[in-house]
């Protein structure tokens, strides 16, 4: 299975209603962003996935230090999204893609191995607005060998809901700011002033 068509390209802009009914505009660039598409708010798997990102944002240092933005998108209407957010205390935007505009822009929902339609896909977008990885395909495609992420089986990303948060976590570790070294060298002593000769 080949890589997703958006890998290495600028992420599409989005404008969708959020769970409060206000229009949410996503313009790529400026900070790392994770967009996860999921089938249905309130279902078992989607709830587990959404809550795993909620908990990561509040409790995991790599999510805090990289200042990653999380965005969830499903076909559900605004009213259902609001109920979903309120019930589970979600702290990031949940968008309503009732017309399928975002799924079309990100090519989500294509047949997976000829068995089913897959609408659970996570995209990671860097601070330049470039789509770096997505969770649907057999392999993740890094920009260079030194940032290679672990290969995962295709079923991890579609059937194992917790795999999406781990997938994002692995990528964030490659861009996490390095902590300053605990040891610092002492500054060089200033040279002594030259003696002035007296006449």
From TrEMBL:
Catalytic activities: a hydroperoxide + [thioredoxin]-dithiol = an alcohol + [thioredoxin]-disulfide + H2O
Keyword Glycosyltransferase on entry: no
Coiled-coil spans in chain: none
UniProt GO BP: cell redox homeostasis; cellular response to oxidative stress
Domain Thioredoxin, first and last residues per copy: 5-160
UniProt enzyme class: oxidoreductase
GO CC terms in record: cytoplasm
Any Pfam family matching the protein: AhpC-TSA
Enzyme Commission number(s) of this protein: 1.11.1.24
Keyword tRNA processing appears in the UniProt entry: no
Region feature (Disordered): 178-199
Any one GO MF annotation of this record: thioredoxin peroxidase activity
Keywords attached to this entry: Antioxidant, Disulfide bond, Oxidoreductase, Peroxidase, Redox-active center
Domain of life from the UniProt record: Eukaryota
Stated family: Belongs to the peroxiredoxin family. BCP/PrxQ subfamily.
Stated name of the protein: thioredoxin-dependent peroxiredoxin
């Amino acid at each position: 299975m080949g890589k997703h068509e958006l890998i290495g390209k600028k992420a599409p802009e989005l404008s969708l209603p959020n769970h409060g009914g206000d229009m949410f505009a996503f313009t790529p660039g400026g900070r790392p962003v994770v967009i996860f598409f999921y089938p249905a708010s309130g279902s078992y798997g989607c709830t587990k996935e959404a809550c795993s990102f909620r908990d990561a944002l509040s409790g995991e240092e790599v999510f805090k230090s990289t200042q990653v933005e999380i965005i969830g998108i499903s076909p559900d209407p605004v009213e259902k999204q609001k109920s979903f957010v309120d019930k589970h205390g979600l702290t990031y935007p949940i968008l309503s893609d009732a017309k399928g505009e975002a799924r079309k822009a990100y090519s989500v929902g294509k047949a997976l191995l000829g068995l089913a339609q897959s609408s659970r896909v996570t995209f990671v977008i860097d601070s330049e607005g470039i789509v770096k990885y997505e969770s649907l395909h057999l392999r993740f495609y890094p920009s260079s060998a030194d940032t290679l992420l672990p290969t995962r089986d295709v079923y991890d990303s579609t059937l194992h809901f917790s795999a999406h948060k781990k997938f994002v976590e692995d990528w964030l570790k490659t861009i996490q700011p390095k902590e300053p070294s605990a040891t610092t060298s002492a500054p060089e002593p200033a040279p002594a002033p030259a003696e002035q000769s007296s006449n």
